[in-house]
Amino acid sequence: MSTSQGEAKTRFIDLLSGFLHRFRIVFLVLLAVLLAAVIAYFAWSEWQSAAREKSILWAENAQNLYQKWANEPDLTKKQATEKELNELLQRILSKYPRQYGAQRAQLIMAEMAYEAKDWSKAAGDYLALAQRFPRSYLAPLGLLYGGVCCEEQGDAQKALAAYEQLTKRYKDSFLRPRALFATGRLLEQGGDFAGAKKAYDQMEEEYPLSNWTKAARNRIIELGIKGKISE
Question: Is the pTM of this model over 0.85?
């Protein structure tokens, strides 16, 4: 190494050393903040993992209670189990509102109302499941059965909105053919025969082998015979 290169390297080291010494407090603060952030992240991750596991455990307990409630023939015992189950479901939803256990809890609440034929509550709980957890695999189920319960109440427009949301947002769902058929059926009942045919034709294009598409073909034939649509 030449003398000039050695001197340049020495100057650089001196400058770097001076810079680090001058701003040492800033660097120490940044290091402390970074360390605190890393510790906080790992602590949060551990808490999330523990919360997820606890919520799943509580949801499994709720599922077992639900089965007990559904199969209990004695009315007094059934009411006691229902009270215990509802309290557990509320605890899950309150303590773990964003965990998987809360999805299961919301579904159980909806199914209990469905079994009791409380269509208004069932519709609200099913649709709340889809709204609160739109990325869940249970969301399409919530929309489908929310629509079914709305129909039971006689609210065709709200049911139609639920079915259409399912078909537009969850294109990979196995429930989509059924929702498309329900959409066509409700449009047909409302006198929108062209809209009904469009829904049925979409089924033919996307799900030619579905049993729901077979039913849709029959509807198209009948609407054609009655002169409601043109072939």
Answer: no
CA dist list (Å): 128 to 174, 184, 193, 221, 224: 20, 24, 31, 37, 39
For residue 162, name the pLDDT band (cuts at 50, 70, 90). very high
Q: Residue 116 — φ and ψ, nearest 5°? A: -80, 0
R_g of the chain computed on alpha carbons? 30
Q: Are 82 and 69 contacting, i.e. CB atoms less than 8 angstroms apart? A: yes
Which helix H or strand E contains 71, and what residues bound it?
helix 24-71
> Tell me: the pLDDT tens digits for 50-73?
666 788 889 899 999 999 999 999
C-alpha–C-alpha distance, residues 210 and 217, integer Å: 11
In the chain, where the domains are located: 174-231
132, 107 Cβ separation under 8 angstroms: no
